[in-house]
């Protein structure tokens, strides 16, 4: 038992190291001058630490605006997904209506079709609605996603019907059942969905790049690419400092929702 | 939880989705621009919306302000777009008709954009094509017509460790015959590798095809109808590339990512590399300004049997067919292609002017490093401007890698390249 345990912890520690090393590299690199970042043989600890990269990043025009844009888009998409996915999930799991199977089939189909194939049509659609270069154009296509509907439906299916029948006997309508019974029980998958959506939107590059026609609608990843990736070279210091800035909110969010997240994956994953 | 029920619904869903997709097709008529109409010489007016990439996008508003001063009725609205995936942005914009008036275009992407039919042809008489470096003008043409106006150019020359060369008592090579001995002399001074060459990473062709040009090869027939990689000259060029590796002057494992080679050059383990005007900045951040001043030499590429042709790249300007202010956009572009404005832009951005006469005074005329690029630009060539060229470059990169690693002989590689390039075709 003991040697097995040692082996297990050893393997886990190795895995942890492999996961954390790039992260540590990013953190350390963000406070190095460029010469040290690209030095060969590589240098782990900064020899002459500097906050120059961050200064350069923050001195870029509109950086605060890009941060706000990213936050507005990500938070709105999270709220939209939580609301619409759980409502749709409830309907697909517990209500009977004509065409339910067909509609759910369509939802699953959307899950399978790769996003790249619908990218241009989606842009043409949004652009024809006159929404290019607007917050609405950035947000609207992502307010509800098939993955969220599927996730919620799977979780809600496992809530016993007897619970809902009891509520119905007590005189509760569908809206009340949904808000008072379903939603409180769905905290784990909702937390999962919140994190997945936030991550997806926070890191989304291509859509904001294409939909934003002026810089005031750029999000962080687009702005970061603009500043640090050149035609013939990359400003690694700026890129790493930007990456640290971009990733910090995600880490904080994950830490806050960690318990629900793990539970959510365990409950709704492949069973 | 994929029960057979779920599977059934899924199949039904796919069928319906396909049906809907089929019905939804409707081709809206594209806005008809007055394509090719000449542009008058009155001042520009109205709002001109343009996209410019990266640093150029960040700096362009300064230049545009001057244009607005000279054309009080016009306002240029610049959006800075990242280089990363900008081609997707341009192509999506063309597909939807939701475009700005003009955009900066990387020289290699022109054919792909022009082939969509989304770009306006350069109006006749807008600019004097012969004022540009010939390679730059050549890179704006697609199927016989011009779709862009060259703005700035870049080309590649030889960067070498001046200190090692001095210690070895050798000076920069002028011909292929002097090339190898020069590099070996630097290696004797302690450099592990004489010259850094690409050996398979994306874009390797930009480092290898010039050897073929230097040997006298044309990789495409003059009428642009077929690729011609199966010539003795091409083989000579590729063999010359290969001998650097077999004689241990160049590593068979060349740099894979941007920024990888500079530290080795600074450390002195690699004594020379072939790069463009931006290299000086990279070397400065990797080794410091003093390093660049004291230890870095720049020389034109050594001449082969035919020439010392290098690769030319850069940025150019195109106007979209769906532009709302077509006249204003072309006027802005015409203005930017003037020698005086090109000089101003050089002092703002450091981008090398595409107009030859802009080099006649100031730092552009006197700086020795810039003089090297100036010489190089006269013979520098772009890759073929066909829509299929990107596909062909993937074949080139893969086959050149085999040559570099000793898996394939130059002759066999060129046969394979010719076979596959012929199958891909020139898009004609």
TrEMBL record, chain A:
Subcellular location: Cell membrane
Top-level taxon of the source organism: Bacteria
InterPro entries: MetI-like (IPR000515), MetI-like_sf (IPR035906)
Any single Pfam family the record assigns to this protein: BPD_transp_1
Major place of residence: membrane
Keywords, ordered alphabetically: Cell membrane, Membrane, Sugar transport, Transmembrane, Transmembrane helix, Transport
Family: Belongs to the binding-protein-dependent transport system permease family.
Name of the protein: Multiple sugar transport system permease protein
Organism from which the protein derives: Kribbella antiqua
TrEMBL record, chain B:
Biological process terms in GO annotation: maltodextrin transmembrane transport; maltose transport
Molecular function GO terms recorded: maltose binding
Gene3D superfamilies, per database record: Periplasmic binding protein-like II
Matching InterPro entries: SBP
Keyword terms: Signal, Sugar transport, Transport
A Pfam family per the record: SBP_bac_1
Superkingdom, taxonomy of origin: Bacteria
Cellular component, GO, one term: ATP-binding cassette (ABC) transporter complex, substrate-binding subunit-containing
Record-linked PANTHER family: MALTOSE-BINDING PERIPLASMIC PROTEIN, MALTOSE_MALTODEXTRIN-BINDING PERIPLASMIC PROTEIN
Family: Belongs to the bacterial solute-binding protein 1 family.
Full protein name: Multiple sugar transport system substrate-binding protein
Organism: Kribbella antiqua
């Amino acid at each position: 038992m003991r040697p097995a345990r040692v082996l297990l912890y050893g393997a886990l520690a190795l895995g942890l190291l492999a996961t954390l090393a790039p992260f540590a590299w990013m953190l350390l690199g963000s406070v190095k001058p460029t010469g040290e970042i690209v030095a060969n043989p590589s240098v782990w600890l900064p020899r002459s630490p500097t906050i120059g990269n961050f200064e350069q990043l923050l001195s870029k025009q509109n950086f605060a605006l890009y941060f706000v844009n990213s936050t507005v888009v990500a938070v709105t998409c999270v709220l939209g997904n939580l609301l619409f996915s759980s409502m749709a999930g409830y309907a697909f799991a517990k209500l009977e209506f004509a065409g339910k199977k067909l509609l759910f089939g369509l939802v699953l189909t959307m899950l399978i079709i790769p996003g790249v194939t619908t990218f241009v049509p989606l842009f043409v659609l949004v652009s024809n609605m006159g929404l290019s270069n607007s917050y609405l154009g950035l947000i609207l296509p992502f307010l509800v996603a098939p993955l969220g509907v599927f996730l919620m439906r799977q979780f809600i299916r496992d809530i016993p019907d007897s619970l809902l029948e009891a509520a119905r006997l007590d005189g509760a309508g569908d809206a009340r059942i949904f808000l008072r019974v379903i939603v409180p029980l769905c905290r784990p998958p909702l937390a999962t969905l919140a994190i997945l959506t936030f991550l997806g939107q926070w890191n989304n590059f291509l859509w904001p790049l294409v939909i934003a026609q002026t810089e005031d609608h750029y999000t962080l990843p687009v702005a970061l690419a603009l500043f640090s990736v050149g035609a013939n070279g990359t400003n690694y210091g700026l890129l790493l400092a930007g990456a640290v800035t971009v990733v910090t909110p995600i880490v904080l969010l994950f830490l806050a929702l960690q318990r629900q997240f793990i539970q959510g994956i365990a409950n709704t994953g492949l069973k | 939880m994929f029960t057979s029920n779920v599977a059934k619904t899924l199949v039904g869903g796919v069928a319906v989705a396909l049906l809907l997709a089929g019905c939804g097709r409707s081709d809206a008529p594209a806005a008809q621009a007055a394509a090719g109409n000449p542009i008058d010489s009155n001042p520009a007016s109205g709002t001109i919306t343009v996209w410019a990439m990266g640093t150029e996008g960040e700096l362009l508003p300064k230049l545009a302000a001057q244009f607005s001063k000279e054309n009080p009725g016009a306002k240029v609205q610049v959006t800075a777009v990242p280089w990363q995936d900008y081609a997707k942005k341009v192509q999506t914009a063309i597909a939807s008709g939701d475009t700005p008036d003009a955009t900066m275009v990387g020289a290699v992407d022109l054919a792909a954009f022009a082939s969509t039919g989304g770009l306006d042809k350069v109006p006749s008489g807008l600019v004097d094509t012969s004022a540009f470096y010939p390679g730059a003008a050549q890179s704006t043409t697609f199927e016989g017509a011009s779709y862009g106006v060259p703005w700035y150019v870049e080309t590649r020359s030889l960067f070498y460790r001046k200190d090692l060369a001095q210690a070895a008592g050798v000076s920069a090579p002028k011909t292929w015959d002097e090339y190898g001995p020069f590099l070996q002399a630097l290696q004797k001074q302690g450099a592990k590798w004489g010259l850094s060459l690409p050996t398979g990473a994306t874009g390797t062709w930009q480092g290898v095809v010039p050897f073929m040009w230097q040997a006298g090869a044309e990789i495409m027939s003059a009428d642009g109808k077929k690729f011609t990689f199966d010539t003795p000259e091409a083989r000579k060029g590729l063999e010359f590339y290969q001998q650097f590796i077999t004689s241990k002057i160049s590593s068979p494992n060349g740099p894979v990512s941007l920024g990888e080679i500079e530290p080795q050059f600074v450390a002195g383990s690699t004594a020379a590399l072939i790069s463009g005007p931006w290299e000086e900045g990279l070397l400065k951040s990797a080794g410091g300004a003093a390093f660049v001043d004291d230890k870095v030499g720049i020389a034109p590429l050594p001449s082969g049997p035919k020439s010392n042709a290098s690769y030319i790249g850069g940025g150019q300007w195109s106007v979209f067919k769906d532009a709302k202010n077509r006249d204003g956009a072309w006027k802005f572009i015409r203005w930017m292609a003037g020698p005086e404005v090109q000089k101003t832009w050089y002092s703002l951005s450091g981008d090398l002017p595409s107009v030859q006469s802009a080099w006649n005074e100031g730092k552009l005329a006197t700086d020795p490093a810039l003089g090297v690029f100036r010489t190089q630009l006269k013979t520098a060539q772009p890759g073929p401007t066909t829509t299929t060229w990107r596909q062909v470059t993937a074949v080139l990169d893969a086959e050149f890698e085999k040559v570099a690693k000793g898996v394939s002989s130059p002759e066999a590689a060129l046969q394979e390249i010719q076979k596959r390039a012929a199958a891909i075709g020139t898009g004609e």
